[in-house]
Specification:
By secondary structure, the protein is an alpha/beta fold. It is globular, with a radius of gyration of 25 Å. The structure holds 2-deoxy-2-amino glucitol-6-phosphate (AGP).
Length: 607
């Protein structure tokens, strides 16, 4: 995610804002910028790269003053570059923004028609142009900002200043933004507390629709209609390290809890339920009517997302899908047809084996599509097409929100292709989109009820071996659950298709190895119940994750966690969340380095 900060106080905005940006660096970014206001004049500097480069540029300029805005950019629209970095300006308006403006293309066309010229590829740049276009009609700077915000669809946390006006305006809708109350009437806005915890621990957390109007020593908060609202001032007692993680103990836990927002952001601007349509901007695909086979290639967690993507595609498109681990694919001289579509999935977009697989495919002239979370990464730049997950920076080595957003993209892509292949009609699409839209809330329901998972973790953390069992689309789910446990707790965990139990793993079962089952009420539910009986008959411990609150084995097993129901194709996104949490809590209780587990890197950029 981008990070924004703004300041109105005594002199010295420049140093305070640069320091705040440094405190936001952990969030991940690719460029940074700053604007300083002094006696009505605004000076601006932007750099692709590090905050330190920006600091040098603005210090060399020597300009300083009592007010300013600054920004670290984590690109979602428009590759990382100086011209796409914030702040963005139009006329005498300067803006920094975090979020996704869903209707920016139509606003941009309208503003171009009014004579506005744009210099960046970002969605953000429409905001200062829109405000500038409304100044005369609104009659005031504040009024123009209010009118502009009402026209925006999507999510925003914005800071706005104007030459000649000693006013800093901040506004929030779905993206976080707070106002810090410093000493001597100092006001600081920030995406989250870490940026400014060194200057104050008194914050107002703005709510959706709030507009904060800051003048020297004065703060007024209104709603979008201009009516004043009262917001509670809260004191936050966080350490610096805790603050960086937004109050969570580890980035992994924060990212598990970010999944509702991450999936919502990944859907924004791409689904239209009433019309039963999925949109992917600038998606360059081959003539899919000629596609006879689809490949899905990745590593690790991203490979598990591919295994689920296979189920989603084959169940609805009836096109054969072959999945492969990138490090296998690249060396086995795969039998490819020029009309095959190859989808490569990578959170980082820098995994060496996945990039090598992509190069092998391109060498043979096939079409490549990336599903990636990092704009401007190697994979996203070199594939013929790319669909971004908008999960925001994933800092924890163990991938969580990237996985659930990847599966969400596969589901949207299935609808997109199904409509174009005429295997899905608008009613099908409306139904499927309707189920997808419910997922963020269903995950939130799981998170809100997840306290029992820590107990389950505590009761089982002393075991040294776990077996995870699932069937069908939930076999990849248990592969992912087992990977989470082993990579952060260092406990041996392996996953099997539950139907394979009698072909070997059943020999392992005894009271020393818990068996984790993922078994929603789908077509294999009864079969998996039989597997659980076989485990119980051998004194095995059963930990069951299901959508059946009245499971008739509930009283005979060691742990039961119920997730909300969903359709077959989306069920793994729900079942994986308690598995992520169980792995997290075991690792945390065991005291391992959850965010940087031993021997692991966030992105395996070497073979
Ligand atoms: C998952 O928790 C691991 N960190 C690892 O398996 C990871 O998924 C794999 O290295 C692939 O990374 P990528 O998605 O960035 O390509």
């Amino acid at each position: 995610m981008c990070g924004i900060v703004g300041y109105r106080g005594r002199e010295g905005a420049r140093e305070i804002l640069i320091d705040a940006l440094r405190r936001l660096e952990y969030r991940g970014y690719d460029s940074a910028g700053i604007a300083i206001w002094n006696k009505g004049t605004v000076r601006l500097a932007r750099r692709q790269g590090k905050v330190s480069d920006l600091a040098e540029a603005i210090e060399a300029d020597g300009f300083d003053g009592p007010m300013g805005l600054a920004h670290t950019r984590w690109a979602t629209h428009g590759v990382p570059s100086e011209r796409n970095a914030h702040p963005h300006t139009a006329a005498d308006i300067t803006v920094v923004h975090n979020g996704i403006i869903e209707n920016y293309l139509e606003l941009k066309e309208t503003l171009k028609g009014q004579g506005h010229t744009f210099t960046s590829d970002t969605d953000t740049e429409v905001i200062p142009h829109l405000i500038a276009s409304l100044l005369s009609k609104a009659g005031s700077f504040e009024g123009a900002v209010r009118s502009a915000l009402r026209m925006l669809k999507g999510s925003y946390a914005v800071g706005v200043i104007r030459e000649g006006e000693d006013i800093l305006i901040a506004a929030k809708k779905e993206s976080p933004l707070l106002v810090g109350l410093g000493e001597d009437g100092e006001h600081i806005i920030a995406s989250d507390a870490p940026a400014i915890i060194n200057r104050t621990n008194r914050f107002i957390f703005l709510e959706d629709g709030d507009i904060a109007v800051i003048r020297k020593g004065d703060l007024k908060i209104t709603n979008l209609d201009g009516d004043e609202v009262t917001r509670e001032v809260r004191s936050v007692q966080w350490s610096g390290a805790m603050a960086e993680k937004g109050g969570y103990r580890h980035f992994m836990l924060k990212e598990i809890f970010e999944q509702p927002r991450a999936i919502s952001d990944t859907l924004i601007g791409r689904i239209e339920e009433e019309e039963g349509e999925v949109f992917f901007e600038e998606l360059d695909l081959p003539d899919i009517a000629k596609v006879r086979k689809i490949w899905m290639v990745a590593c690790g967690t991203s490979y598990h997302a591919c295994l689920i993507g296979k189920h989603i595609f084959e169940a609805n498109l009836r096109i054969p899908v072959e999945t492969d681990i990138a490090s296998e694919f690249r060396y086995r001289d795969p039998i490819l047809d020029r009309n095959d579509l190859v989808i490569l999935v990578s959170q980082s977009g820098e995994t060496a084996d996945t990039i090598a697989a992509m190069k092998e495919v391109k060498k043979r002239g096939l079409h490549t599509l990336a599903i990636c979370n990092v704009l401007g990464s190697t994979l996203s730049r070199e594939c013929d097409g790319v669909i971004y997950t908008h999960a925001g920076p994933e800092i924890g080595v163990a991938s969580t929100k990237a996985f659930t957003t990847q599966v969400s993209v596969f589901f949207m892509l299935m609808i997109y292709l199904g409509k174009r292949l005429n295997v899905l009609d608008s009613d099908d699409a409306r139904r499927l989109i309707g189920e997808l839209r419910k997922i963020p809330h269903k995950i939130q329901t799981i998170l809100d009820a997840s306290s029992s998972i820590e107990d389950t973790a505590r009761e089982n953390m002393h075991y040294r071996h776990f077996l995870y069992l699932g069937r069908g689309i939930n076999f990849p789910t248990v592969l992912e659950g087992a990977l989470k446990l082993k990579e952060i707790s260092y406990i041996h965990a392996e996953a099997y298709a539950a139907g394979e139990m009698k072909h070997g793993p059943i020999a392992l079962i005894d009271e020393n190895m818990p068996i984790v089952f993922v078994s929603p009420r789908d077509q294999t539910y009864k079969k998996t119940c039989s597997n659980m009986e076989e485990v119980l008959a051998r004194n095995g411990k059963v930990l069951l994750f299901t959508d059946d609150a009245r499971h008739d084995m509930a009283k005979r097993i060691d742990a039961l966690f119920v997730v909300p129901e969903s359709i077959y194709e989306l069920q793994p996104i729900l079942s994986v969340v308690p598995l992520q949490l169980m792995a997290y809590h075991m690792a945390n209780l065991l005291g391992t380095d959850v965010d940087q587990p031993r021997n692991l890197a966030k992105s395996v950029t070497v073979e």
